[in-house]
Structures are given as structure tokens and as C-alpha cells.
Amino acid sequence: MAASLRLRGAASGLWYWSRRPRPAADLAPLRGVLLCSRSMASKTPVGFIGLGNMGNPMAKNLMKHGYPLIIYDVFPDACKEFQEAGEQVVSSPADVAEKADRIITMLPTSINTVEVYSGVNGILKKVKKGSLLIDSSTIDPAVSKELAKEVEKMGAVFMDAPVSGGVGAARSGNLTFMVGGVEEEFAAAQELLGCMGSNVVYCGAVGTGQAAKICNNMLLAISMIGTAEAMNLGIRLGLDPKLLAKILNMSSGRCWSSDTYNPVPGVMDGVPSANNYQGGFGTTLMAKDLGLAQDSATSTKSPIILGSLAHQLYRMMCAKGYSKKDFSSVFQFLREEETF
Amino acid sequence: MAASLRLRGAASGLWYWSRRPRPAADLAPLRGVLLCSRSMASKTPVGFIGLGNMGNPMAKNLMKHGYPLIIYDVFPDACKEFQEAGEQVVSSPADVAEKADRIITMLPTSINTVEVYSGVNGILKKVKKGSLLIDSSTIDPAVSKELAKEVEKMGAVFMDAPVSGGVGAARSGNLTFMVGGVEEEFAAAQELLGCMGSNVVYCGAVGTGQAAKICNNMLLAISMIGTAEAMNLGIRLGLDPKLLAKILNMSSGRCWSSDTYNPVPGVMDGVPSANNYQGGFGTTLMAKDLGLAQDSATSTKSPIILGSLAHQLYRMMCAKGYSKKDFSSVFQFLREEETF
Amino acid sequence: MAASLRLRGAASGLWYWSRRPRPAADLAPLRGVLLCSRSMASKTPVGFIGLGNMGNPMAKNLMKHGYPLIIYDVFPDACKEFQEAGEQVVSSPADVAEKADRIITMLPTSINTVEVYSGVNGILKKVKKGSLLIDSSTIDPAVSKELAKEVEKMGAVFMDAPVSGGVGAARSGNLTFMVGGVEEEFAAAQELLGCMGSNVVYCGAVGTGQAAKICNNMLLAISMIGTAEAMNLGIRLGLDPKLLAKILNMSSGRCWSSDTYNPVPGVMDGVPSANNYQGGFGTTLMAKDLGLAQDSATSTKSPIILGSLAHQLYRMMCAKGYSKKDFSSVFQFLREEETF
Amino acid sequence: MAASLRLRGAASGLWYWSRRPRPAADLAPLRGVLLCSRSMASKTPVGFIGLGNMGNPMAKNLMKHGYPLIIYDVFPDACKEFQEAGEQVVSSPADVAEKADRIITMLPTSINTVEVYSGVNGILKKVKKGSLLIDSSTIDPAVSKELAKEVEKMGAVFMDAPVSGGVGAARSGNLTFMVGGVEEEFAAAQELLGCMGSNVVYCGAVGTGQAAKICNNMLLAISMIGTAEAMNLGIRLGLDPKLLAKILNMSSGRCWSSDTYNPVPGVMDGVPSANNYQGGFGTTLMAKDLGLAQDSATSTKSPIILGSLAHQLYRMMCAKGYSKKDFSSVFQFLREEETF
């Protein structure tokens, strides 16, 4: 599917990339070509570490844009598909660093990320001067900052670039990247990230990409629980759910959770609540992100009163059979009726 | 100021009135005339009880539309202005009921409202059969239901019609009314409420008007505190507040409190946070509405986990010097720095 | 079982009755005889309304002390046992009031209590001047105050005297009564209450009996949840539960929930946690009392931050299958493990 | 001041040391002499790192028991007093480790502790095989475990032994030590800790000392806030504070915060609430310990619903002028009245 790439947001002061379905006579894609679609001959290989649910489709989008890959995953099976497609699979993060000077990492936790960078066979063992290391994992911003310091000591550049958008957006190349790092290097990061996402937002110094993601997801969790509580209370007070949703959405209670992702079955189509809370963004992942928000708040001494409680609620939901359901299932969790 | 009145929302299943600024050649006001602006000669007087900050401009808008008023307020001073304008001032709610068969009440608390209806000289002492009694106070929906029963015993009709929109909207006639009561009487209520508000939404049986308002305001309080927490955490993690607001507003954290009424000074113009949290919707009023939500939740055994905590937070803010500030000042409340 | 009755606490400023197992040569019971055990011949009948789980054994203890009873319950079956034992059963609260000038009421909710006092055939319809009406129901203190006013208008006396101790204590006559009302009438109340309980505590004006009970139970709920959280966290951090309980109990974390009623199975014998959380004080009852605390806090504008959250948690537990378990089952509720 | 030392708790299965004020004719001190007061000649030096408010009096108690000290503090001024008393001051933790094979560390945060052990001139640089390293800092148990691993690699032994009791108890040698580590080494740790504290409790594997302290203090914070809420609500409902405290203390609401450290001025003597919340255990320190509980709970996925909220409340209090007051000042924080 053809798409246009444009640098947007200059006027609004928000510097990010947005790729939208191309209008018929739009010539803008030419710019995108310059940045992302050079002929394969001219492209140097990109390292990719972590080929899980998210990393796999992200790496494939880099391939589609003509980048040869140097691949590593702790589970060899995750690499097979790429090997068969002709990409080079190596046996450690250090080996990736030896063969590529631009590396993207996509790992599940802070601990895995530290291991991949600073471990016995980690990237830092063989990283080349001037390399660009982009970490798209969602981790503690304090860890991102520490990694950046170690990377800088080796004469290389580190950027944190966590994503929002889930597996679907990873497949369609419509992720949003929130990027933290030295501003001069942002254009270089964009070249790669723009192949995997439709929004690439520069957030500030190293760690601010993580910070932006954490803050957004904390507010999302709070609004979702709030929406579920308000809808449930209204229903018990005799309101029709669809009508209540409409009233909220034209009033000051309006939020993404009420108008785009309503948690009450029957109110909207095409959202997880319409499909028994399958798919979407899992409760476990939300609990993980809220744990990061909690850690960041504790270390910066920032009060997050509702955020803390949201964290504890999703924690409990994970233990009560909701771990694999979409996070909007909090409505179902609250909804269960008292029986006597 | 000319304005157009249209019946909207039929297609969407949401039945409400909306009056919008009139486009240049719009003839629609004619409909409004039919409903709200008949010649004074043809109009029967309307009773109005409670001429406070909200009731005063609401009553004036009825006058502008040509309704003679029968006025009562427990504070005689509140009636002077209307007396001087030629409206009839009487000395008890019962007297209002004797002279008018359509009455609007706008009172601060459940207790005041019960007194005005069921007190020694209350409306019910002299209410005429077939009267339409519309209560625009924000009170416990359980109280609305009880009043409705008593009114019904007298052969009259009761509707709850709390407003959202504040003093400014009351003045400009742009309030939103959320109306609960018998559906057949809604058109009659609209005739009057349409003179004071631009949205008149039918919510269902008696009490659902209050329910809708309470649910909206509870979700609003939760989203506002959540926005304040997320913005504060982001700032402490190094993000620029304007940039963070933009990221939230294009992401799943988006809500009315983040995109229309941002609580962080410097992010938006024309909102209370740009004016030292003056004006707007006071913390005391929010605490009151959350108290109603709490009571309704307790009596219906609905869990409102974040809603309860939001209530307690606004309760504390009232005691810590924030009672007269806009409710978005929760950002300032959280923002205070630890000092050692 | 013989027991001694003594007026205690004068020195300590706390005026309450305590009946303890009688030491061998203790002559104190003589006082008890004067107050509670006069010969049956000299005793005037006592009214008793509400013969449920608690009221039934309470009424029997009055019988044991020689008081003839005038009985009423909305469910005739609840009266049979007493009728067969020769007590007089009547057909309304008004009839009780006609035949007895001391009445004890023991009802499940505020609504039932208001009905029994102020209903069409309520006590107030036929109450005699000078009657002593003691309400042992646990209800909103604001309702107690209103009832007291109405009772006073009729020339009678009202006292609130809620109990703590459960069905077991009701059977053994070891309830604690917390009494609010005019101090001069406390001795008269004691005469009756001392037959049903081992502690009768004077708390102050009408409503303070309820207030004391509500405050105690709110603190109890908070400490219990806190104990469950601390024990669970400690266990997950590798501590032996019995050892942790001992450390808490010799330290500043010590509380009734940790040292007398520990919620962790295996730590103590003879408590509900040792018996699959059967018996004890049900989660539903705790949720009810927390609802009263919530209502009182809202109406007095008192912040109860942890109290609110405790309320919501017990509310949720009622909906998640814990309604009939002892309230210490919150440990089990928190304990459920996340599974992936 | 003479004191007796006894091994207690064997019967109860709880293995800890307790030293109590000596009864007149008590010969027990002889045992203490064997363990803690050998003649100076026979004693090898003990290292002590961190001579702050707590470390200073702790080190002095070791001196009183005849242990020569090897001293280091990052602030040279903190060492002067000891130098003047003839103790040996060195210039790095490594130097301490070179000269002493038993070292006690008492530091403010996890970061400081890691630096002292693993830093460029840290203990581990020169630690001797078989050394016993006891860390009395209150830190994250996960950090204790990591340090233990590193220490073990060097052939030495690490134990965590955080204290409770504050500066007063440190001076009088009445601290409680909660000790985690290999059980065989507990006796060796006792020899030193028994000179500084009256209770030395063995908690289990490394990290459990920290875990026990964290769990106790979390429960303490929860009970204290609960007590403050219950007392405040009761007072607003018309109860006398002293009477309410007595009722709670003879009922199921009883806890250390209500019966030993009541937060309401006028209820008890000799506690911080009787002295404008001066002295005692500062709000800042409580907030720090709750931060550790939060971190531990997040990493072990343990729900701490009230614990999280208590953390956030103490966090807010630190920002609202309560940072230097005793943590029982939460009563004052809640007590502030709403004004309109």
C-alpha cells in the first residue's frame, strides 16, 4: 500500500513524522524515498536484536524498505524465518555490534535490555565508534539514561524509542515512536523508525521517550478505570449505556477510553469490549507499564495517587483471571454483581 | 444575540436540543420562535425558586423569552432585581405553586430542595393538579425519585434537570440540561429549558438526569487528577509540558482535561490554569458532586475505586486552601515540591 | 454460668460495665443481682422488635434474667419460639409500644429502623410518655439523631446502642454495647443491656454510640487489609509467616488483626483463617459498616482516604465470591497469584 | 548503665536477643559479658562505615563494649570525634576492609550502600576472605541480595541487619536488629549487634531482615493513617477523643498507633502528638521506607493497595510542610478544616 511521508508539525512546535495514506496527486512521497526507500544497493546493514511478537514484524518492515539485517535473538527459533529469507543471523549481541553500526533492540524488560547491552557478550563489548543504538523496549527511563552513559563512553550514540500501537500497528508499519536522545541524531533515527511507524516524535533528552510513553499509559489506565466506574455506576442508576456514553462524549467526561475504546459491551463495534475483551492491549502489559510509572514516580518523589491505585488494580486483575484480556476488561471486573 | 434552535440527534438515537450561533441566512430561528418566543400576551407565568449565582441568570433568560415570572428566594435580597423589573415576588414556595403551574427550582443542596418541596410552606402544600415541576438543582438521584413520588401523589409531574456549564453558560443561555422524567412530558420541559440552555438531553426515568450529571462529573474529576499526575510526572522526568500535552492529545491518554482544559500553567490560553486557577468550576463544587457520586455508589453497591479516592482528594484540597480555586488546581496541589 | 458484674472504669474516666468470670470468693455479683436479676415477680415487660440472628439470642438473655417480653418481628416465624416459651407476641411495633415502656430494637438497616419507629404502625404511633427506646441496630448516626428528635417530641427517650461481638457473643451474653443518649438515662439502659453484654460503654450524646462503632470498624478494616498486605508482601520476599507475625507483634506494626485475628492460615489457631474463613464477621457486614462510615464522612466532610479505599475493596470482595467469608479473607483475595 | 543480656524466645520458636534493664540482684549480665564485654585486650578491631545520626551512637556503643574501631565516613567531620577518642580513621571503605575483618555499614540509601561496597575504593576491593560484613542500612532487599552475591564471590559473608528504634534507641543501645543471612553466622553477628541493640532477631536468608523491616513499617504507616482517620471522623461525629481512644483500645480497632503512639494531641503524654509532632520518626523517613515497600511490591507483583496509598499520602505530606514532623502528624494533615 502506497503511503506518503511528510515532516509535519513544524508550525505547531511538535516535531514528528507522520505517514498518511497518499492523496492521489501528492508528490510528497519523494521525500520519503530519500529517507527510507533508497535502492537496496546503497544500504548498509542494520542490526536487530529481539525478534518477538513486536520485533518480528518491525524487522520485516525494515526488510521491505531494503535494509539488509544482522539478526540476534536469545531463542534461535525466532531467527529461522529471517535466516530463510537470506538475512544474516549471528550468535550474540556483540557479534551484531561488530557487523552493524546501526542497531535496534526490542526486548521485554529492563533486565533483558541491560544484559543485551552490558552483558558478557553484550553490544558494548564490540560496539564501533559512531554507532547509533536505538532501544525500542519499554523500560525504566533511569535505565535508559544509564545505558546512554555507558554507550557514550564507547563513542557511540544511544536513543530510547519506545513504541505505542501493538502488534497490529507493528505489522502495518503504523507504530508511534517516542524518541529521546541527542537532537542532532534524531534525523538519523527517523530514517529507520519511519520505516516501521507512521509517527516519530522527538521528546527531548535520553529517557524522555520512555517518560512520554509511561505518562501516556498511566493516564490511559486512569481514564479507562474511570470510564468503567462511571459507566457501571450510571447503568446501576438506570441509564442506558449507549446514551450515557453519548452524554459523556459530548461533555467534560469525554476521553479516548469513552469515545474510541469504550469498555462496555454493546456500546461500540470493533473494540475489544465487543469481542469478549480479546485482542487489544493486555492487562499484563498495562500492569507492567504502570509498574514503570510507579518506579519513576518513587524515584522522582512525584505523587501519583490515582496512578498508584490504577497500578494496584491491574495487578489484582492479573491475579483474578484477567491477565490475558484487554485492559478495558476492568469494566467486567467492576461489573460483577454482589450476590447474597 | 440571535440564535438558531434545532431538534437534533434523531438519527443518532440521542434526543436532545441544540441551539447554535445562527449562520447568516439561517431561517431556523422561526422554529425557536414557535417553541420559546411566542408573543408575551400568550404566555402564562412560570415559577422560579432559587435566584442564586445560577438561578439569577437562568431566570433572566426566561424573562428574555417573554415569560412572566413568579419569584421566591429564601433571601429577599435575591428577589429585588426581579421585583424592580416588574416580576411578581411571593413569600413562600407554596405561594409560587398557587400562582404558577410550571415551576423551576434551582437550589444548592438536597436538604434545601426537600424543604422547598415538602416543607411547611412548600410547593406541595398548594401545588395544582397537572403542574410541571422541574428541579435543576444537583442533588442525590434517590431524593429526586422520592420527590417525584410525592409530587405524583398530588397529581402533578416532577422532572429532574440538573445543568452543566457554570455561571458563564447560564448567562449566555448555553447550559446543558440532563433531564429525567416521564418521556411524554419532555417536550413541555424543553419549551422552558430551551430558553436557558443550548443542549437539552433526555436521559430516561426520574433521577437519570442527576445520574448522568454525577457520572460525567466523577469521570471528569478522575481524568483531571490523572492528567495532573501524568503531566507532573512527565515534567519531573524531563519532558516539556507543552510537548507532553501534545503527545497525550494525539495518543490514547487524550481527554477533555488534557486537550480542552489543561491544568498546567503555560500549556493553554483561556483556561483557569492560565489565570491562577481563578474562575471555572470550584473545588468545593467538585467535592460536593463527588459526595453525591459516593452516596449513589454506596446505596447501589457499585464499586468506584478511583472515584472514591478522587472524592477524598478534593475533600482534602478544600481543607488546604484550594476551596475557591478551579478544580484543575489539583495540578498545583500535587506539584508542590518536597523540601528538606 | 455464674458471672460477676462490676461497675468499672470510674478511675480511668471511661464509664462502662464489665462482667467477668467470677473469682472464687467474689461477692460483687450482688450488685449485678440488684441491676439485672431481680425476681421475676417484680419485673415489668420489655418490648423487643427484630428477632433475627442477633436479636434472637439477645432476647433470650433478657428472658434468662427474668424479663417478660412483648415480641414483634416482620417475619412471624421468628416469633414462634418465643410464643411457645410463653412470651407475648403482638402484630405491630405500635402494639409493642402500647404494652411496654422499655423497648429494644435490633434491625438490619436504617430503612427498617425508620419504618419500625415512624411507619404507619410504628412505635411512635402509640409510644407512652417516659418510655425508654433503645436501638441496637447499626445504622447511620444521622438517622439515630433524627429518630431521637421524633421520640423526644412524644415525651419519650431514645438511645442508640449498637453492639460489637457477633452471634457468639450475643449467645453468651458477652456483647459490647456502645451507648449514645442523655447521660441521666444511661443507668436505666444499663439495667437491660447488662443482661445481654459484658461491656456497656457510655459514649456521649445520641448518635455517638453509632459513631464509636463505625470508627472502630473502619479502623479494624484498614488494619486488617494492612496486615494482609504486609503478610503477603513479606511471604513473597521470603519470610516465614509465623516469624513475620511475631516480629510485627513485638514491633510498631502490631494490631488486633495481626496479634489476635491473624488472616494468614497457619499462623494462629481458633480464628477464621484457620478454618477456611468460615464463621467470624462476614465481608458483607464489614462492607455495610464501611458504607455507614463513608456516609458519615461525606456528610461531615471528613477525609477518610484509606477508609474509602477499604470500603471499595470489601465492596469488590462481595462481588468476587467472598461475601459470606470472614472479613480476614482479604488475605486470600490479595494472595491469589498472577498466572501467565 | 548496667543491663542484662539474655537469649530469649527459644521456647516460642523466635530466635532473638533481648536485653532488659537489670533487676537489682540479677546475675544474668555475666552472660552478656561473655558475649559482648570481653576484656579489651582480647578484641580485634571492628570496621564502621557511616557515622551519621544513627551510626555515631551505634559506633560509640561498640566502643563502650571495648571494641577498637576502624572508622570511615564520606564527611571527614563525622570522624573527628572518634579520632579524638583514639580510634583509627582511614580514607576509604577499601582501607577499612584491609584492616578489619568485621565491618558494620550504616548508610542512608541503596545507592550509597552500593558505592561503599562496589565503588572504586569500595570494601570489595580489599575485603579479606572470611570477613563478616553487616549492613544496617535500610535499603531495597533486592540490593541486599545482590551485594551478598558479590561478597560471597570474594569468600566473605554478608548479612543485612536494618534497625528499628530511632536515634534515642541507638543512644541507649536499645535498637531492634532484624537480621538476614546464613544462619550459621548469626551468632557472630549477634556478638556485635547485641552491643548496640536489645533485640536481635533472625529473619531468614539474606534480604529478609530488610523485608521484615519494610513490612512492619508499611503496616505501621497504614495503621497510623487509619487511626488518624478514625479519630478525626469520631471527633467530627461528636465523640470525645480520649474516650474514643479508650474504646478503640479495648476493641478490635486497637493497634500500636492507637494505644502507644496516639496521633491526637491531648490523648497521651510523652508522644510526639503531645509535643507538636516534634521528635519521633520523621515523615520523610516513613516516605522513604514506603518507597522501598512499593519497589519490593512492584518487583514481586504483590498487591499493596493501602500500602501504595499510604506511600502517596506521606509523599504529599513531605511536599506540604510536614517533612520534618513525626509521621503521626498525619492526624493534623487530615484535621485541617474546610473553610468557605
UniProtKB/TrEMBL annotation, chains A, B, C, D:
Q: Which residues form the active site?
A: K213
Q: This protein is called what?
A: 3-hydroxyisobutyrate dehydrogenase
Localization, UniProt: Mitochondrion
Specify the 6-phosphogluconate dehydrogenase NADP-binding domain's residue ranges: 46-204
Q: Which UniProt keywords apply?
A: Branched-chain amino acid catabolism, Mitochondrion, NAD, Oxidoreductase, Transit peptide
Enzyme class label? oxidoreductase
Q: What is the lineage of its organism?
A: Eukaryota, Metazoa, Chordata, Craniata, Vertebrata
What species does this protein belong to? Jaculus jaculus
GO CC, any one term? mitochondrion
Please list the residue ranges annotated as the 3-hydroxyisobutyrate dehydrogenase-like NAD-binding domain: 207-333
> What PANTHER family is this protein classified in?
3-HYDROXYISOBUTYRATE DEHYDROGENASE, MITOCHONDRIAL, 3-HYDROXYISOBUTYRATE DEHYDROGENASE-RELATED
Its UniProt pathway annotation is: Amino-acid degradation; L-valine degradation
List the Pfam families hit by this protein, alphabetically. NAD_binding_11, NAD_binding_2
